[in-house]
Amino acid sequence: MINRAETVIHVVDDDPAMRTALRRLLSQAGYAVKEYASAGEFLVADPVAPPGCLLLDLELPGPGGLDLQRALQRLGREMPIVFISAHSDIARTVMAIKGGAFDFLLKPIDAQTLFAALDNALASAAVTPSPAESLQPVDASDLNAREQVVLRGIVAGRLNKQIAAELALSERTVKSCRAGLMRKLHARSFADLVILAEPIVRRKASI
Questions:
Q1: SUPFAM superfamilies, from UniProt (predicted)?
Q2: Which residue ranges form the domains of the chain, and what is each CATH number?
Q3: Residue 121 in contact with residue 102, Cβ under 8 Å?
Q4: What does the pLDDT profile of the chain (207 residues) look like in tens digits?
Q5: DSSP per-residue codes, 143-202
Q6: Which one, of 109, 94, 4, 124, lies nearest residue 57 by Cα?
């Protein structure tokens, strides 16, 4: 059980209004909050303790959210990251999740979805250093041929319409297939789906 008062949510967003709104929302929910206007400001601040989670905007001026994620990894200062963005970008979402992000949320952000994502990230980080370790692997034999091809497209960061064009399917069919994959793989989010999909795709490629 996460004690929100003992954790800090580090909000990195260049929009002052968004930072203020998130600080108020998170403070009311019992989290301690620190704000940063850029990736550089966060790195200079050196937030080591208490334990916390990084709520990171994908689109930042100068070094972006993905750049900050990679910098923290190089510096050995990893902490759970929940990305936020005003735009749905499958390719960059996949890159963020492969880099270890726990979730990826679109603005405007639903409060309960945000709290759940932060609590899950904090709880998972307290138990294990990697979100992948908390998920059960699925055998590729459980998936049909179409699902395996769609899964490869998802891991490659392709949009639904791109996968649909490659397979000569409708975008609706690909969306339905993706929903079926989430059920079969017991993925609770798109982040879970990418984490579970990558080892399946790697195993198929090595056969």
A1: C-terminal effector domain of the bipartite response regulators, CheY-like
A2: 4-126 (3.40.50.2300), 145-206 (1.10.10.10)
A3: yes
A4: 678 888 899 999 999 999 999 999 999 999 999 999 998 888 877 655 566 899 999 999 888 899 989 888 887 777 899 999 988 777 777 788 778 888 989 899 999 999 999 998 888 776 554 444 445 555 666 788 888 888 888 878 788 888 999 889 899 999 899 888 888 887 777 767 777 777 777 766 655
A5: S-HHHHHHHHHHHTT--HHHHHHHHT--HHHHHHHHHHHHHHTT-SSHHHHHHHHHHHHH
A6: 109
Integer Cα distance of 81 and 78 in angstroms:
9
φ, ψ of residue 119 to 5 degrees: the values are: -65, -40
Question: What's the pTM?
Answer: 0.67
